[in-house]
Write a sequence for this structure.
């Protein structure tokens, strides 16, 4: 080997070592020594701290991911599909062998704030520590106290099923170096207390951008402030933009209507279904009035995003099903008119209007396809225990018929949504 090759090899080795050191530093910054928080569990928590932790667990909807269908609450085992494989939520009960029974408050805080497990492993961001990093230490300790008050469940954790190289800690360390930075909440002095509390709940515990944000090819969002809408990989529903007036912005809503929607799943301005119905049913309906109003205040004040230009009105026969005498109109008469009305006017408080509905004309039609195929109900809540819903049509309508029906609805009564193709339906079916 020539001297030049040796120098080149040494230079490459030095660069590799420097990059490795940088990745290591970026993955350990802002980590407090565990000795400062102790490695043994703290003394018995008081009743007030446990109750506070139970409330915070509801606010973060922790049970939603950490409970398998038909399983014991918080015992883990629910699979979270991702583009990189399936991640299984771990056991959060105080079982010493399989749960967090031996975790100290400091170790639990490190998991939330730094995304690192008790044994030092880096955690996958399907656990939304990019949001939970904003949780205060006091709230983390309350969550720890609540989870340790639960009955221990001896349910082993299921190993993740991830493809190479996403199953490697080194690959995860590089991802975190690129996209994760621990944060601490700093109140905005120019905003009121309600706005700051709402920001804490929406950006942190509520981890709203985990759904309401687009992700890059490596699954990263731009920031916890990104609420511009995105496709939810787990269910292929579209979480609409919370900043665009033609999608799901609530800037023009009365504050009480926003509160009603989060508390009951329905309001004078709309209703929730699909994944958001799970959030209301398992989380926000249990929040107190001040916190709901704080979240509403924050969401109402989000900076508006420019709306997409409205498409030019298409000829009624420009796509299959859009003609008033075509197959889409007949399908609507046969299956929809009884509830939604001849002019798509709906029945206030019971069946939603389709005319002028931004949920109908949104640029992404995935949610409409899901609702027609699978049916749906708003969540059953204390404020709306017996919601009206929609039956599934997956066994009634063909792929072409679903496309014709939705194309008709999206182009009728003044609606200006783009047609839905059979391919759009087939992809979701």
């Amino acid at each position: 080997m020539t001297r030049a090759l040796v120098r080149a090899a040494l230079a490459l080795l030095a660069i590799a070592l420097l990059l490795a050191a940088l990745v290591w530093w970026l993955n350990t910054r802002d980590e407090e020594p565990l000795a400062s928080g102790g490695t043994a569990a703290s003394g018995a928590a008081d009743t007030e701290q446990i109750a506070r932790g139970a409330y915070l667990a509801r606010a973060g909807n922790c049970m939603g991911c950490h409970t398998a269908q038909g399983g014991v609450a918080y015992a883990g085992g629910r699979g979270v599909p991702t583009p990189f494989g399936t991640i299984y939520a771990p056991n959060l009960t105080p079982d010493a062998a399989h749960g967090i029974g031996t975790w100290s408050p400091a170790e639990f805080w490190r998991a939330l704030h730094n995304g690192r497990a008790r044994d030092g492993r880096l955690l996958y961001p399907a656990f939304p520590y990019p949001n939970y990093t904003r949780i205060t230490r006091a709230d983390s300790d309350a969550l720890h106290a609540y989870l340790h008050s639960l009955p221990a469940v001896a349910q082993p954790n299921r190993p993740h099923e991830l493809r190479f190289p996403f199953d490697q800690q080194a690959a995860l360390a590089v991802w975190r170096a690129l996209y994760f930075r621990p944060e601490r909440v700093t109140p905005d002095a120019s905003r009121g207390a309600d706005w700051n509390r709402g920001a804490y709940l929406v950006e942190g515990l509520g981890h709203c951008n985990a759904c309401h944000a687009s992700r890059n090819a490596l699954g990263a969002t731009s920031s916890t402030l990104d609420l511009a809408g995105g496709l939810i990989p787990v269910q292929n529903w579209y979480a609409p933009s919370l900043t665009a007036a033609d999608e799901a912005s609530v800037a023009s809503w009365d504050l009480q209507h926003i509160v009603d929607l989060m508390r009951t799943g329905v309001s004078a301005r709309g209703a929730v279904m699909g994944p958001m119905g799970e959030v209301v049913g398992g989380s926000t309906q249990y929040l107190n009035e001040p916190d709901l109003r704080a979240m509403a205040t924050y969401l109402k004040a989000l900076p508006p995003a420019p709306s997409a230009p409205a498409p030019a009105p298409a000829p009624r026969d420009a796509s299959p099903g859009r003609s008033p005498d075509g197959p889409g109109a007949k399908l609507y008469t046969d299956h929809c008119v009884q509830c939604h009305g001849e002019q798509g006017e709906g029945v206030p408080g019971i069946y939603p209007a389709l005319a002028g509905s931004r949920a109908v004309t949104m640029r992404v039609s995935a949610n409409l396809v899901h609702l027609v195929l699978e049916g749906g109900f708003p969540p059953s809540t204390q404020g709306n225990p017996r919601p009206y819903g929609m039956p599934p049509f997956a066994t009634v309508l063909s792929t072409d018929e679903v496309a014709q029906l939705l194309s008709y609805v999206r182009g009728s009564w003044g609606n200006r949504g783009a047609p839905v193709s059979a391919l759009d339906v087939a992809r979701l079916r």
Observations:
- The chain is about 40% helix and 5% strand.
- Residues 3-28 form the longest helix (26 residues).
- The first strand starts at residue 79 and ends at 82.
